[in-house]
Amino acid sequence: DHATFAKMKSLGLDPKAYLANNDATAFFALTGDLLLTGPTLTNVNDVRVILVD
C-alpha cells in the first residue's frame, strides 16, 4: 500500500532487487510490514486474502 511504498522510499530500498532475489521476507521485514502467520501444521503454502472495501 502507500504506507509501505513511502517506507521503502525513505529507506532507499530497491524493490526490483528483492524481487529478483525472491526475498520478499527481508523487504517487508525492513519496512516493518512483514506478516508472520506462525506454524499452520499443514503442507500447504497457499494464502488467500479478501479485501472488503
Question: How many independent structural domains?
Answer: 1
- Count of distinct strands: 0
Radius of gyration based on Cα positions: 13 Å
Provide the succession of SSEs.
Answer: HHH
Task: Provide the structure class.
Answer: mainly alpha
Characterize the main sheet.
none
* Portion of residues within helices: 40-55%
Beta-strand portion reads: under 5%
Overall morphology: globular
DSSP summary: helix tally:
3
Flag low-confidence runs.
none
Distance between the termini: 14 Å
Q: Estimate the mean pLDDT confidence.
A: 88
Write the layout of secondary structure elements.
Layout: H1 2-11, H2 15-20, H3 24-31
Helix pairs in contact: 1-3
Folded structure, characterized:
The protein is mainly alpha-helical and about 55 residues long. The protein has one domain. The chain is built from three helices and no strands. The mean pLDDT is about 90.
List its salient traits.
53 residues, 0% strand, mainly alpha
Report a brief summary of the structure.
This protein has 3 helices and no strands.
